[in-house]
Amino acid sequence: MCNRTMKKLHLTMLLVILYCFVPSSTGSYPSTRTVYYLHTSPTTWMGASETCERYDGHLVKADNVTSLRADFQTLDIQLNRKYKFSNLTSKVWVGLYKAGGKELMWHKCHNVTNVDNIYGQLSSSSESCVSMDTNYQLSPTKCTEELPYICQVDEGQCWFLPVENKQFKMASNETSTDGLNECAKKCRNRDRNNSIECWAFYVDSSNATCHLYLTSERHTYLLNSGSYLTASVDTTVYLKVCVGGDTSSMKALSSAASYPALANCTHYKDEDSWLEAVCYCDCDQPPIILSPEYLVLTPEEKIEKIISELLVDASNTSASFRKLNSIDDKRPSARSIGSLGIILICLVFGGIVLLDLNVLVSHISALIGTSKDSNSNKK
Ligand SMILES: *[C@@H]1O[C@H](CO)[C@@H](O)[C@H](O)[C@H]1NC(C)=O
Ligand SMILES: *[C@@H]1O[C@H](CO)[C@@H](O)[C@H](O)[C@H]1NC(C)=O
Ligand SMILES: *[C@@H]1O[C@H](CO)[C@@H](O)[C@H](O)[C@H]1NC(C)=O
Ligand SMILES: *[C@@H]1O[C@H](CO)[C@@H](O)[C@H](O)[C@H]1NC(C)=O
Ligand SMILES: *[C@@H]1O[C@H](CO)[C@@H](O)[C@H](O)[C@H]1NC(C)=O
Ligand SMILES: *[C@@H]1O[C@H](CO)[C@@H](O)[C@H](O)[C@H]1NC(C)=O
Ligand SMILES: *[C@@H]1O[C@H](CO)[C@@H](O)[C@H](O)[C@H]1NC(C)=O
Ligand SMILES: *[C@@H]1O[C@H](CO)[C@@H](O)[C@H](O)[C@H]1NC(C)=O
């Protein structure tokens, strides 16, 4: 019995891995998850930008205050106000800068698109860097000033927060006859169309109807749930969450340069090309947020760390795993996980599957025969 369970577990992991690495094939792209890291140790703009780059992030792209504020508020609500993103207590560095003293860019290689007050201010200012105050106002700032900073990593997929015994007050924007899983996928994978996208769904179980709710206001159903949701016994609405975050007081890398040079963007992949690589799978796991302290390690150090985490006494594993995650996350059933997390999990469990491949192949037919009964238990 135990043996069979193990085999089944391994087969599941294999399927998860295969499913994870099948890329999404749509032509344009849905939202991906944005992870913000608030670094509380002050440093210069160059030190901040190099620290973010060290883990493939960039200084926060604060080009739309409305959506940034919505993300920060969601972060505080989601994480039980544990992190003070929406109530910053000091100025922070953001990614806007004047490369080589002339060309305006968002760190590292995003062209400036909005025509906004700050761009004019920065153009005519003698400063080349930009900070954001506690009211989300941007202003040119001397690059050698030392400030806390926010790094941004765009990776992984959005997930859905189930809210039980609730129903939407208003009619849905779109319906179809999909079941729960298909409905979730439809909402998550739906392309952004003029920034209108699906931010919530629910399935009417009486006639299996999938209802999608569309809006251009990021996270609004979650932030203003009082105005959108009403009590309703035995129905569950699912609200999309596209944000994650953590704080860190790690020491910033020190930078040799004082002012941002012209960026070499020759090999920069723009947003759409990395979005294409985002994998979609139905892992029933909360998204993993790796801490910056872990992310800045070299590959060798990471491997060493993973191995030492794996070798820890089993009774200690969850505590040390949490240290790695640095997040105390009590959400009931999150539905996705960042790509880094998937790679980690696939590496760890993929190894087990490969070791077991012979056994696995020879037992697949037996498994298919015996899985009918247990399939009805799972989904
Ligand atoms: C954040 O600040 C606003 C007003 O500035 C206040 O109403 C709110 O309670 C604060 N939130 C937290 C979590 O401190
Ligand atoms: C950004 O601007 C530069 C020069 O202004 C241009 O060559 C480049 O194609 C632009 N990149 C994007 C992604 O628009
Ligand atoms: C979705 O429907 C609501 C009312 O049910 C409406 O206020 C909103 O504008 C609609 N959204 C879109 C994108 O059509
Ligand atoms: C995008 O929205 C427009 C109207 O706002 C609509 O005509 C068009 O069909 C939409 N495209 C997609 C792919 O949904
Ligand atoms: C599904 O049932 C609800 C009431 O339970 C009803 O309002 C709705 O119109 C039905 N939808 C379809 C597509 O039949
Ligand atoms: C900011 O983003 C929202 C969508 O989240 C959009 O509706 C709004 O027009 C944007 N504002 C600016 C100034 O681009
Ligand atoms: C930019 O970087 C690429 C390699 O990534 C290099 O081949 C190229 O010469 C660099 N361009 C400049 C202007 O430094
Ligand atoms: C468990 O972890 C704690 C703190 O991380 C450590 O002090 C302790 O020695 C560990 N116990 C075992 C059995 O590894």
TrEMBL record:
SUPFAM superfamilies referenced in this protein's UniProt entry, alphabetically: C-type lectin-like
SMART domains reported in the protein's UniProt record: CLECT
Residue ranges annotated for the Apple domain, each copy included: 151-242
CDD domains documented for this protein: CLECT
Domain (C-type lectin) ranges: 36-152
UniProt keyword annotations, A-Z: Membrane, Signal, Transmembrane, Transmembrane helix
InterPro entries hit by this protein: C-type_lectin-like, C-type_lectin-like/link_sf, CTDL_fold, Pan_app
Domain of life: Eukaryota
Signal peptide residue numbers: 1-27
Transmembrane spans: 340-369
Any Pfam family the entry gives: Lectin_C
Name of the featured protein: Uncharacterized protein LOC106062769 isoform X1
